[in-house]
Amino acid sequence: MSMSHVDMKEAIMNGETSLGIEFGSTRIKAVLINKQFETITSGSYEWENLLKDGFWTYDQADIITGMQTAYREMKQEVERQYGITLQTVGSIGFSAMMHGYVALDQQGELLVPFRTWRNATTGVAAKELTELFQFNIPERWSIAHLYQAILNQESHVPQIASLTTLAGYIHWLLTGNQAVGIGDASGIFPIEESAHNYHPSMLAQFNELIADKGYAWKIEDLLPKVYRAGEQAGLLTEAGAQLLDTTQTLQAGIPFCPPEGDAGTGMVATNSVRKRTGNISVGTSVFAMIVLEKELSKVHPEIDIVTTPDGSPVGMVHANNCSSDINAWLGLFREFSEAMGYEADNAKLFSVMFNKALEADPDGGGLLSYGYYSGENITGIEKGRPLFVRSPESRFNLANFMRTHLFSAFGALKIGMDILTKNENVAIDSILAHGGLFKTPVVGQRIVAAAMNVPISVMATAGEGGAWGMALLASYMINKDEQESLDIFLEQKVFHDVVGEQVQPDATDVKGFEAFIERYQQGLAIEQAAVDHLLENGRN
Questions:
Q1: Taking all residues of the chain, what is their mean pLDDT, rounded to a whole number?
Q2: 240 burial class (0-12, 13-18, 19+ CB within 10 angstroms)?
Q3: Got the DSSP string for 400-461?
Q4: In this model, does residue 325 exceed pLDDT 80?
Q5: Which SS3 state, helix, strand or coil, does residue 474 take?
Q6: Cβ 246 vs Cβ 68: under 8 Å
Q7: Are 399 and 357 in contact (CB under 8 A)?
Q8: Interval 517-533: pLDDT, tens
C-alpha cells in the first residue's frame, strides 16, 4: 500500500529512507525511496564519455559535478513536494558502470584519467591472463587494464597505491573506506566462490607474473576490501557530506552499503538474483546475466563469470554496443523532421520508428548493420566502426531499416548467449528486461524474445532503473530480518505484488532473427578489413 503524503513526510523527517545514486553511461541518477520501496523523489545529470589520448573516459570534474547535481535535484524535489530540508537518510549506496580502471596514488589522486569499460585496448593483457588463470579475463576488467599498463611500461604503475572501480572511488571519497561490493569486485579480479573474496591462488599467480618488475606493491595490497549485500561498508564522513551536499545541510554518520556495479543493480531491480533467473540490461551497452546452477564446462572468452551482490556465480554476456547507433540514426530523422517544419518530441519519434519495425520483413529485408561505436570484444572488432550495408536485392524501406538496426543492437549479445544456452545447456526459467528501449511497449520485448528465443518480461518497475536497484540494496542493509537472504527480501517484500508484462517469442520473428544473425556473422569476416581499407584510402 502506498504511503500517504503525511506518512511520507514523516518518514523523510525520521530518516526512514534509502538513497541510491548510480553513475550510468549517459546519466547520473539519484533516487530516494521509502521503506515500502516507493520512489519519493529523484534527480539526474546528463553526461557523455569522451575519447582522450586514445582512452574512453569521463572528466573528473564531471564526476563530482554530476553527483552533486543529481543529489541537489533530488533534494530540491523533497523541499518542493514536502516542505522539508533533507538532513539525513537511513542508508546510502553508490553504483556505477562496472569494470574499468581507477588507479590512485598515496594521496588518493587519480594517476591517469578513469578508463571506462568501453576501452578495447587491453587485448594482449586479457589473453595472457586468461591463459595464466584458466579463467576468462575480459578486456574491460580492472586487472586487464592494470596488466596492459604494465606491459606498456606506463610510468604511473609504480606509484599505484590503490586500484578500484568508479563506484568504489566515489564510495571512498564519501566514506574514506576502500570498499567494493562483491558483484563489482568480480569485475576487478576473479572471485573464489566459497570464500567470497579475491581468488588467492590467482593473486599469487599474478604476483609471480610481475615479480621481475620490482614494484613495491603486491596486487592484494591494491585491491579494495570485498563486501556482500547486507553488510555495512562505511559511514558518511563530514568531508563526504560536504562533498555530496553543496548546501552543507546533510549530516555525517549515515551508513553506506557496499558500492556495486550497474550489472548488480540491474539484477536487483529486476528481481533476478535467484539461480536460473536472468536479466537483460539495455543502454549504450547491453548485457545479459544468468545466475548459474553449476560451473561452466570450460573457459569461454565471450562469457564473464561474475557474481550477484550476495555472491552467487553469474554467467554474463556483455556487448559494448547497443543503442548508440540507433540513437544516432533517430537523431538524423529528427533533423529531417525539423527541416520539414515538423517538431517531433523524443517519445513520439521513438514510438513511431520502433513500431515501424513490426511492419518489416521477418529478417529485415536482407539489410545489415553493425552499430559498433566502440570495439566489440565478442566479435573481435578492435575499433568503433558503425556500418550500414545493403545490396541491390535488399528490400530497402523504413520498416526493414528499423528492424535491422534493432536486430543489430542484439547481434553480439546473441552470439554470446548461444554459447550459454546451446553449448553449455544453461537452464533459464525467466528473463526480465530493463532499459530505455522498453519504454515503447511490446516492440523491444518482441525483438529480444526473437533474439533469445525465450519469454521476455518487463516489470512495472523496470523504468526505475539501476539507481532504484542501488537504493534497494541500501534499504536491504538496514531493513532486512536477521538471516534474511537478498533473494527472499526481494521476492517477498519488494516484488510480491509487482505486475509484469511477458512476451512470448514469435516463431516467425525467431526464424527471421536467425536468418539475420547468419548474415551478421558472415559479414563479420570482412567488416573490419573493408572499413579500415576505405578509411585508409580516404586519408590518402
A1: 92
A2: buried
A3: HHHHHHHHHHTHHHHHHHHIIIIIS----SEEEEEEGGGGSTTHHHHHHHHHHTS-EEEETT
A4: yes
A5: helix
A6: yes
A7: yes
A8: 999 998 887 655 665 56
> Residue 45 phi/psi, 5° resolution?
-150, 125
Q: How far is CA 409 from the centre of its chain?
A: 15
Burial class (CB in 10 A: 0-12, 13-18, 19+), 3: middle
pLDDT digits (tens, 9 = 90+) for 60-118: 999 999 999 999 999 999 999 999 999 999 999 999 998 899 999 999 999 999 999 88
CB neighbours of 305 closer than 8 A, spacing ≥ 6?
Answer: 135, 136, 186, 190, 296, 313, 314, 315, 316
What is the rounded (10 degree) CA torsion for 454, 460, 466, 468?
-150
Q: How many CB atoms are closer than 10 A to CB 274?
A: 19
List, as one string, the DSSP characters of 493-520.
IISTT--EEEEPPPHHHHHHHHHHHHHH
- Please name the residue ranges forming H helices in 87-158: 123-133, 142-151
Assign 284 to helix, strand or coil: coil
Selection from 279, 365, 374 nearest residue 323 by Cα = 374
Closest CA to 304 of 290, 322, 283: 290
- In degrees, rounded to 5, the angle at the alpha carbon of residue 117 between the alpha carbons of residues 347 and 178 is 115
Query: Exposure of 513 by Cβ count < 10 A (0-12 exposed, 13-18 middle, 19+ buried)?
Result: buried
Cα–Cα distance measured from residue 263 to residue 417, given in angstroms and rounded to the nearest whole number: 16
Instruction: Compute the Cα dihedral for 524, 136, 314, 276 and give only its sign.
Output: positive
Packing angle, helices 142-151 and 123-133, rounded to 10: 110
In the DSSP assignment, the letter for residue 273 is -
Closest among 8, 35, 31, 9 to 21, alpha carbons compared: 31
Rounded-to-integer distance, Cα 257 and Cα 421, Å:
34
Confidence of residue 537 (pLDDT cuts 50, 70, 90): low
What lies within 8 Å, CB to CB, of 1 at 6+ separation is 36
β-sheet bridge partners, residue 101: 115
Give residue-wise pLDDT tens across range 434-466. 877 888 889 999 999 999 988 898 887 666 678
Nearest to 149 by CA among 136, 166, 163, 134: 163
